[in-house]
Backbone:
């Protein structure tokens, strides 16, 4: 895949990828941007080996999911995480008073396991079919269905309180 084709595909996928990563990072835009940038760099470096243009979206999301997991492991190893409860006390850089409109949802999503969170966000936010989510997550379709079922139940419990 040449640079021009890669750029065209990335432009098409970037809004959805950014939305997915923002939700996966509990609304932390800076963290989502860092993960996206790292994932796009990894994808670009590997793009000359990638031939299946129709599978580009799933391939890119898989790289982003793996990058997100690596990023969160690094944060946990350095104990740099900011608890979601403390996020309410952080002033937004240039956001309006509505900057925490979705904080309750982010908090509920943050309580999911990484696998549940990934499956739920890809299925409900990005309208990805289960088969594609299985490809992105490198698991069986039945496993994705299990993640979705448990994720929905956990969200239902957390949001009903």
Residues:
């Amino acid at each position: 895949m040449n640079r021009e084709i890669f750029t065209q595909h990335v432009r098409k996928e970037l809004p959805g990828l950014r939305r997915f990563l923002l939700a996966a990072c509990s609304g932390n835009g800076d963290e989502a941007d860092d993960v996206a940038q790292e994932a796009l760099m990894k994808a670009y470096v590997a793009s000359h080996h990638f031939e299946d243009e129709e599978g580009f979206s799933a391939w890119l999301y898989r790289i982003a999911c793996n990058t997100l997991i690596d990023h969160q492991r690094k944060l946990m190893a350095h104990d740099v995480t900011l608890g979601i409860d403390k996020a309410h006390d952080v002033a937004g850089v240039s956001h309006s008073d509505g900057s925490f409109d979705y904080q309750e949802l982010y908090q509920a999503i943050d309580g999911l396991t990484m696998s549940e969170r990934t499956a739920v966000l890809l299925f409900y936010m990005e309208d990805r079919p289960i088969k594609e989510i299985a490809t992105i997550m490198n698991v069986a379709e039945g496993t994705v269905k299990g993640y979705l079922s448990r994720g929905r139940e956990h969200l239902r419990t957390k949001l009903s309180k």
Q: What stands out?
A: Residues 3-160 form a domain with the Butyryl-CoA Dehydrogenase, subunit A; domain 3 fold (CATH 1.20.140.160). The chain has eight helices and no strands. Confidence is low (pLDDT under 50) at residues 86-99.
